[in-house]
Each structure stands twice: as C-alpha cells, then as structure tokens.
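2024-03-11 09:14:02 INFO receiving multi-entity request
2024-03-11 09:14:02 INFO entity count = two
2024-03-11 09:14:03 INFO echoing inputs for audit
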Amino acid sequence: MTIIKVLYVDDEENNLSSFKANFRRLYEIYTATSGAAALDILSQTDVHVVISDQRMPGMTGVELFKKIKKFNPEPIRILLTGYTDIEALVDAINDGDIYRYITKPWNDIELNNGIQNAYDVFKTRRELKEKLAELQKTNDELNRFIYSISHELRAPLASALGVINLAKLDNVYSDSEKGHEYWNLMEECCNRLDYNITSTLQYYKNSRYTNIKEEVHFEKLIQDLIIIHKLANNIDDKIKFEVSIDQTEVFLGDIFRIEIILGNLISNAIKYQKPDEENKLIKIDVKVNLLDAVITIVDNGLGILNDHLNQIFNQFFRVHNQKGTGLGLFIVREALAKLDGKISVESVVNSGTQFTLRIPNQR
Amino acid sequence: MPPKAPKPNLLVIIDDSSFDLRINSGIATHIKVFTQILCFSSAEEGLDFLVENLDNPQIYPHLILLDIQMPEMDGFEFMKRYDKFPDNFKKGSNVVMLSSTDDLQDITRVDSNKNVFRLLKKPLQIEQLKAIAEELYLLD
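2024-03-11 09:21:47 INFO inference complete, emitting structure
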C-alpha cells in the first residue's frame, strides 16, 4: 500500500509539532510555516493531501490553495479555520478550491477522517485520469489499426486483383477449361475479401465521422451507385433497373452516410437475385419533399424468410449459404440511426424484397 | 477542355511495390499508346530522373502513374516537389495518382492539387487507363 503523503502548513510551530506527534506513524508528513515554503515543497514532492491554517501572515490558507490549484490541481486541500472566518470561505468552497474545512482546534479523529477521505478522492481521481489516458491510447491504436487495414491489407489484395487482370489480358487462361475456372474463382475470392475490408471500414467510419450537411442529388447518386455495384458484383446487363426520381426540392443531408446506406441496399438487391430468373428487376423510387426523402428499393429476387426478417439488421447475421459478411444491413441501420432515419422491410420468399427508407431533409 | 496533345511517348510509373510496377507496366503495354515505359521503385528515384532530364526533349513524361502510399517520400511529397517544375513542363505532363484505398482524406488532398489529373483506386483497370489516354491524347 502507498504511504499517504501529507503537507501541513501553519505559521505556529507548536501546531506543526503536535500534528507531527499525532500522525507521524500513519502518514509521511511534510510541514511548512508559510504559504511560500509550502509551494516550494509541492514543487518538489508529489503530495496527496495538503492541510493549511487559514490565518497566516503573508498568504492566507485560501490564497495558498488557489495558487496550488492553479499549478497542480491534484493534491486534495483541507482548510483549518475558526468559526469566525467562515464568511470569507464561502466563495473558495464553491469554487472548488477547498475539499473540506475543519474547525480549529481540531481533534485527532476528525482530522484523521478528513485525511483518509481526502486521500480516497485523490486516489479515485488519479485512477480515473489513468483510465482516461489508457482509453485515449487504445483509441489511438484503433485508429492506427484501421488505417493499416485500409492501406496495408488492401494494397497486396489490389496487387493480386491486378495480376488477375493482367492474366486475363495476356490470355493466360484461354488454353484450358480448368484454367479459366480457377482464375475466375480466384478473382471472386479476392473480390469478396475486398468487399469485406471495405464494409468493415465503412462501419468504422460511420461510427466516427461527424455528420456533414451537403446537397444531395439523388438522380446522379443512384445512377453512380448502380454503376459501381454492378461493377463490384461482376454482373452483366441482365438485371433491369427502373429508377424514378421525384426531386424538385433541395435535399440537404450527410451524403457520405446516404451513399453507404443506398450502396449496401443496391448491392444486396443485385446479389440476392434468383439465378434462373428471366426478368431480373430492381426498382428504385425516390420522392423528396421539404421534410424527407422517401426511398423504396424493390427487387424480384430470392426474398427473405419471415423468421429472418427481424434479424437481418443484426451484426454478423447471414442467411445460410449466402455470401456476405453479415455487416451490410447492420451498417445500414447504424448509419440511418445517425441520420435519424427509418427503415422497414417487407419480403416474400422467392418473389422479392422491398426496403422503404425515410431520411430527414436537414434544411 | 484543353486541346488534346499528340500521341504520347513516355509513361513513367512510380511505385514502391515491385508487384504493382510489373502489373501496371503490363497493363500499360496492352493499351499500346506509349512507346516507352519507365519504372521507378521510389519517389526519390523518379524525381532524380525527371530533374536530370528536364531539358532533354527525348525524355518527356507525358503521363506519370504515381502511387500514394510509399515509405520515406509518399505521393503527396512527390507532388510538392513536382509543383516546382517549370510551367511549360507541367503543361503537357499529366499525373495520375493511385491509391490502394478510397480514403476521403486522399481524395480531398488530390482535389486540391491542380497538377494531378485524376485519382484512381488500385487495381488499375485497363479501361480506366485507356479512357484517360483517349481523353488526353489524339490517338489514331
């Protein structure tokens, strides 16, 4: 156990000696006969509790405490005073300069309790400070970790995808049926890993970035997203997109999060199509008014079992036998929550799914 | 839109990853636009070479593919120095930066540099490189 270090300040030598006599077995005691001498000791020693007499020539106890608080707020301060001084102390107590005052003449038990309580406060505050520093450190490490995921992990993956591109260009795999299959499998695996890294990053960024207000043009945004996600999912033009945008009002919102939300939903609509459906169709409908943007995304794909509907927004929930990280819709929900938006879903197995979103216009 | 330049000659690729140098020079070969491709594995080497040949019309980099994340001197440091090159040199030479992420910070930093023509996410797709060449040069 740490020995509690106590500094006692009093201009009367007698008081200092009797304090020492009473407490020297319990605490490591420092004494000073003036405010100036006390400050001198504090500048060299890590003291836990400071006890000072109020009435001293040169510098009063309250004046001393104000000074101590300024250069090191850590030591807990106890003032010894007569009843007559109390008027003058009110401000100092309210300002937090003094942890406790004890009336003179003090009795051993009361003063000892005061010191013990003061040390408890000291300890708790110091622990809190250490925990905060620890937390800050963990947070910084997490930031660096995420940065390294985005750069160091993705860089070699991009290289691998580059090699596959080059292999295609050089016609390496046209020679054999198997070669063709293997290269495609490899590309699919790399793309999936790429998607996982990207969605993990999206989740992280969503929890961090502050909300930015920008003008959103849904027509352009949705057309861009369709192109990106068609590319990312390696599909040809066999899926038909019907996009209808009704936006005459200006919409202000957090374009970064809206992009994450719509991108994930469009990507899902593309991914969970029925493989042998002749007329694959995705309908996207946006209506913008003064208050909200209401967006529906309808597909005629695989659909979701009723039992699963209330779980799809959970982290790492995945429908059996389907690719994906189980992060997409979870990220959608988290991002929407930051925008005060709402989402609902209706689905019939083997006939399709409809997501309806409402995102507030932040004008 | 500034007028397109005649068919380009030299492509310079700067990347610390030997894989990406190999891959991107391979892809550039396929578009059959450049007569010469030079690779450098660090920003310093690339800069040294460009500075030494500033007055040599035989060696004029019409296009520079520049990786962002490199040790010691990164792509942005490179651009700080490249910005000091004479204006008539920079006029016909275009820098395309490559990043392994779509980091927002990278994007805003690239946007603010007038000497960067575009930012692309790795892996470089042949269609992207073709489109850039068609945008910049008169090809037959």
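2024-03-11 09:21:48 INFO post-check: The first strand of chain B starts at residue 10 and ends at 14.
2024-03-11 09:21:48 INFO post-check: The helical segments of chain B are 18-31, 43-52, 75-82, 87-92, 104-111, 126-136.
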